[in-house]
């Protein structure tokens, strides 16, 4: 990871970054799953790192994974959701 970061100045990591990012993705997926399975009516995930700077195969900023796109893909592929709407409020 350290070697990768040398050529990518737009990525900031510490030794625990990947583990924390995985926990965040898991939490967002759990939120989507619980919502789709109607265990509660709605949900809102306030997570760090947010994930909105990362791309499919390119982490950037403080973001290793794009949590929203991963959760949307999970909903479509694993939970049989037909449509996903993503709204970013700035």
From TrEMBL:
SUPFAM superfamilies linked to this entry: Arginase/deacetylase (SSF52768)
Residue stretches making up the Histone deacetylase domain: 8-88
Residues spanning the membrane: none
GO molecular function: histone deacetylase activity, hydrolytic mechanism
Organism: Ascaris lumbricoides
GO biological process: epigenetic regulation of gene expression
Catalytic activity: N(6)-acetyl-L-lysyl-[histone] + H2O = L-lysyl-[histone] + acetate
Family matches, as Pfam families: Hist_deacetyl
GO cellular component: histone deacetylase complex
InterPro entries: His_deacetylse_dom, His_deacetylse_dom_sf, Ureohydrolase_dom_sf
UniProt name for this protein: Hist_deacetyl domain-containing protein
């Amino acid at each position: 990871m350290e070697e990768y970061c040398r050529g990518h100045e737009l990525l900031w990591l510490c030794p625990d970054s990947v583990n924390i990012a995985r926990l965040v993705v898991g939490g967002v997926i759990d939120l989507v799953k619980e919502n789709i399975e109607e265990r509660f009516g709605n949900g809102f995930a306030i997570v760090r790192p947010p994930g909105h700077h990362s791309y499919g195969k390119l982490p950037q900023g403080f973001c290793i994974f794009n949590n929203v796109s991963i959760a949307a893909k999970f909903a479509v592929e694993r939970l049989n959701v037909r449509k996903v709407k993503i709204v970013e409020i700035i």
